[in-house]
Structure formats: C-alpha cells, structure tokens
Give the backbone structure.
Amino acid sequence: MAAKFEPPKGTRDFLPEEMRTRRRVFDTLTHYFQLYGFDELDTPAFEQIEVLTLKSGAQAENEIYSFVDKGGRKLGLRFDLTSSTGRVAASHPELSRPIYRYQIGKVWRYDRPQAGRYREFYQADCDILGSSSLGCEIELLQMATEVLRAFDLHEYQLLINNRKILEAQIRVAAIPIEKKADALRSLDKLHKIGKDGVRDEFLKNGLSEADFERFFAAIVVENLDDAAVRVQSDEKGLQGVAELKEIFARADKRGFGSKLRFDWTLVRGLDYYTGPIFEAHAKSEVGFGSFGGGGRYDDLIGLYGGPAEGAVGFSFGVERLIGLLTERGGKTDLGKTPVLVAALSPENVDGASELCLALRRSGVAVRFLGAVKKRDQAYKYSTANKMPRLILIGDEELKTQVFSLRDGETRQEQKLGRDTLVSTLLS
C-alpha cells in the first residue's frame, strides 16, 4: 500500500469549497484596497537574509525559514510583507510619492502552530509611503472599518496607542536605553502572563524590582489626559498624546470614532514602529484576539538605503479574519481605476473625505490625496499615477455640493451635482 503524505507541519491544503470562501475574502480585500486608491505590488517569496533581519534584528532569524542556495547565498522565505516593501521603496526613488501600495501574499514563520496561527499563512497589507501626515492613519483606519462593514463584522474594536508615548514612559521610568526593547516586549505579554509574569520577565532580562515598579507607575493610565500627566514634560511623549487626540477627533467627525479605543498595553512588538500603532480585536469562540493591525514606521525605508520619509501601514491577518467570518457567517461584497480627490486647504479635508466615503459606498474607487498646496500638485500627481479623473474640493464645492470632474487627458471639466457625479463615475 502506497504511503499517504500529509502537508508539512503548520501548513494546510484548501479544497475547492474552502477556496471559494477564501477567494471571496481575497477579492473583497482587493476590491477595498483598490477602492481606496491603492496600487498592487508583488515581491519575491524569498529575500536575502539581511533584508529580512534588518528591521527586526538577528533574533528574527530563529523564526525564518532560511537556506543557502547553490551559489552560496544565504536567503530566507519572507516572514512578513513589510521588509520587501521597504526594500522596494528605497530602491525605486522614481516612484511618485506618496506611494499607495497593497499586497496580498503568503508568508512563512517557523513558529509553534496553534489556533489561528500557522507556519504558512496569508497577509493582506496596505501602506502609504512618503507622507508624514496623520491623514494617512485616518485613511487606513477608515478603510479597515469599511472592509469589516462589508464583511458584516461589527463587534470589534480598533485598539490604538503611540510608540512615542511608550518610549516617553520608558524614559520617565529611567529604564536604561539598552533595556528598552526588553521592557516593551515584556509589556506586550501582559494579557498572556499577567503583571507578575511581566515582573518575572523584567528580572530575567536583568532589570530590577525597582525598575519594574517605576515602569508600571508610568505606564498604567486611564486615558490620554492621564497619559499626558505621566509622560510629564517629555516633548516626544506629549507629541504622541496630541497625535492620538487628533486621530480620535477626526475619526469622530468621519463616523468611526466609536470603533477606536486607547489601550495603554498595546505595544506591537516590532521595534521599527515610530508613532501611532493599532490592532483590530474581536471576541471569538475560537480564541482569536487580534486579526489585523499596523502603525507608523517612518525610519524603515532609511534602513534599506532610501531617504528618511514617512510611512504607515495596516495588515489584515487573513487566516484569523477567515476564522471570524466562518464562525459568524460573515459576508463579502465586490468592485476600478480610482478617481483622485484632493482638498484645496486643510479646512476642506473633512468635507472632502465625507464625499470620498459617499463615493466609495456607491462603488466608486477613490484615492484621497488630502490637502494640496497648489492645484498643479494634484494635476502632476494625477498624471504621474495615470489617474485621469480628478476632483478638487474647496469652500465653494462644499457649500454648493456641485463638483468639477476634470479629465486629465482632455483637460475638460464637467460641473456635476453629487448624484450625477456618482452615475458619471460609475458609467
């Protein structure tokens, strides 16, 4: 009798019925990434080992499937999609900034398989590279809520914190700089091992009981105002508090503020985050907690030899998302080259964003550029990114709700009310 072979540990086969569900999820994610104006990127399944360890340190090599090829080069299967994105952004300065990139692909980690965690799995990432505006965080968070709305998932929260606050709390607690990463990794385990477990981790990593007590005195806060008090006069920490307050205020204006919750325990273990960080959490019978997350990583592209430039991203853990959908009987939706929308001043941004959301809900793909200093900036960006349809929004447009749709190829403009605008863009 011939031997029967099983898939390698931590991997799975997906039969046609399962693939129909998975394909609907992939298609819906792709649809919403494109609806928000993101372009697709693809990168190799394996990279030079330095590309993979550069942002996470040599210890990450323990989780990498690494090998030496026939030419003697040390390579590794990618364990996330962000490393490759950083390499691409640094290697291609000719790409017009900001870059709106999405990628859905397999990644591999030599990890202990458990519920919702495998050694081979899919991630679905979207990133905005080359902008330091907090408007990017707002776009990504709003996009995430719209994706989950399309899946009919409503009982979840987007937890949010800021690495600037965490690092200020480290400084206030007088934790030695060389022990910063150990302290934050210990805090990252709080929900699994409890306060006493974090204390044990501190002692194991060469920190003292006094270090632990000072750290917890600085880190435990009730709200953002309390966080501002705890970071005292630390300039970076106060900047982090202000950034989160702005995100909450703008999220409220755009209708998804109720989905955000400040969580002082949120760390997002990777050291390359530099600003706001976030995770999507939902209760589940299967025990899934986080099924997505991301944050700002302004220094990453510089690690790969590129210029220092802003970058922020959001990633869905596809396997955990599918697990939630399967458990709850969630649904999907389906939808082209985006119209480019830009506000003519910062005061017009929220009104312009409201139009973007209305267009997207009608099935129109939109890339929202935020506020531009000059009309010519939007025209050049539209041409560079082969996005011929452009809407510029100022005070008059928001007052009259009549919008100018500009065709970048013919240079002609049509004055259209909102309903006519939607039907024209869908035609």
Remarks:
- The domain at 339-426 is CATH 3.40.50.800 (Rossmann fold).
